[in-house]
């Protein structure tokens, strides 16, 4: 296929956060010519995230059913293949509950099907992994077969057998099919089905801080707060602020987050934030993402709530299968954009 702007592709993926970049890498691995487009601007939710791939603690803390816990574990298990293909570095140093009643926590983890044992007075699981978002995003965007373009897509319109993407720089792109992975951004014009899908995405702002202190040996979890090793320091996160779309950081909120984190990791007691950031997560009423076809030739990869990194490999797999016209499996039906 060739296009007047020289940018024609089998698939254009709009949005290069965890979902779009992972989907682009997966599609390219299947042999598609992929154009990944992201607008210049402020950091996306994926780069603000802590990078935990945490089916175990996310399941317990969100009171997941065993079925949901198995889904999250299955999503994590798709990462090694994607990581090996793209150079994403997975860190498998586990996570420990540093809150009250570690024995009970270990039991709850085991009940949901995760490995757990007491270690240094904490409930430790090797089932939670992590990655470094900046490294992972760079590796996915750079995946073999993915062409990357910096442009804001302003609108999508059918054109012949495919789509024309109108871009803010005046140079349109064309592709046979389009995946919309624009996070919580809803400014792109397009067909009614797209508007309907984007309208289902609700917002949850999160604030997170980096602090320069000796990091713990693994992720530490507590009620509503976590500490994630980050090179020479730690990330302390994160707030859950439904309905908020601004990226403002509230110093008092960050100070309180660090105070609560110091109960998990005492070196934080006298520390101050080196920097703090905010990101906005997209979510749906049942807490699962929207992945799959929304109308002929148009696909969504959206709204993974607080587990965008954890779910990215699975969303990429489901979206790619949907693009290939494969019959949806059980996971794909759970993520179907038409389920609401
Ligand atoms: C503080 C915080 C901590 C978190 N920690 C974790 C964690 O530890 N583990 C985990 O699994 N998840 C975590 N999350 C959740 C995770 O970050 C999100 O679920 C995930 O990043 C969402 O990815 P996304 O690709 O949907 O959106 P985004 O990362 O927001 O990417 C969307 C992209 O689309 C682009 N875009 C939008 N509109 C257009 C347009 N019109 N044209 C071109 N490009 C466009 C944007 O520029 C952006 O790059 C955290 C979130 C926050 C806020």
From TrEMBL:
Residue ranges occupied by any FAD dependent oxidoreductase domain in the UniProt entry: 10-321
Keywords, sorted A to Z: Oxidoreductase
Superkingdom as given in the UniProt entry: Bacteria
Pfam families for the chain: DAO (PF01266)
Signal sequence interval, chain numbering: none
UniProt entry tagged with the keyword Oxidoreductase: yes
Keyword Manganese attached: no
Listed name of the protein: FAD-dependent oxidoreductase
């Amino acid at each position: 296929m060739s296009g007047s702007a020289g940018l024609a592709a089998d698939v254009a993926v709009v949005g290069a956060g965890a979902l779009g970049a992972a989907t682009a890498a997966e599609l390219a691995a299947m042999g598609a010519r992929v154009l990944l487009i992201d607008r210049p601007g402020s950091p996306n939710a994926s780069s603000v995230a802590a990078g935990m791939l945490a089916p175990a603690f996310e399941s317990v803390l969100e009171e997941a059913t065993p079925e949901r816990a198995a889904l999250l574990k299955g999503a994590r298990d798709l990462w090694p293949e994607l990581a090996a293909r793209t150079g994403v570095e997975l860190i498998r140093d586990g996570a420990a509950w540093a809150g009250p009643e570690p024995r009970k926590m270990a039991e709850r983890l085991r009940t949901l099907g995760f490995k757990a044992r007491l270690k240094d007075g904490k409930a430790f699981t090797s089932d939670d992994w992590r990655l470094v978002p900046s490294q992972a995003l760079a590796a996915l965007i750079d995946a073999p077969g993915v062409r990357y373009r910096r442009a804001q897509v302003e609108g999508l319109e059918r054109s012949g057998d495919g789509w024309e993407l109108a871009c803010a720089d005046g140079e349109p792109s064309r592709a046979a099919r389009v995946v919309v992975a624009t996070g919580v951004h809803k400014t792109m014009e397009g067909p009614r089905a797209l508007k309907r899908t984007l309208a289902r995405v609700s917002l949850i702002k999160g604030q997170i801080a980096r602090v320069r202190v000796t990091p713990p040996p693994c992720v530490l979890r507590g009620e509503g707060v976590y500490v994630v090793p980050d090179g020479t320091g730690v990330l302390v996160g994160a707030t859950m602020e439904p309905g908020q779309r601004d990226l403002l950081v509230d110093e008092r909120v960050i100070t309180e987050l660090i105070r609560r984190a110091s109960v998990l990791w005492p070196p934080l007691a006298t520390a101050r934030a080196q920097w703090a950031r905010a990101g906005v997560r997209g979510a749906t009423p049942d807490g699962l993402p929207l992945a799959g076809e929304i109308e002929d030739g148009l696909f969504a990869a959206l709204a993974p709530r607080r587990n965008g990194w954890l779910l990215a490999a699975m969303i990429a797999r489901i979206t790619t299968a949907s693009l290939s016209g494969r019959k949806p499996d059980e996971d794909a039906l759970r993520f179907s954009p038409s389920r609401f």
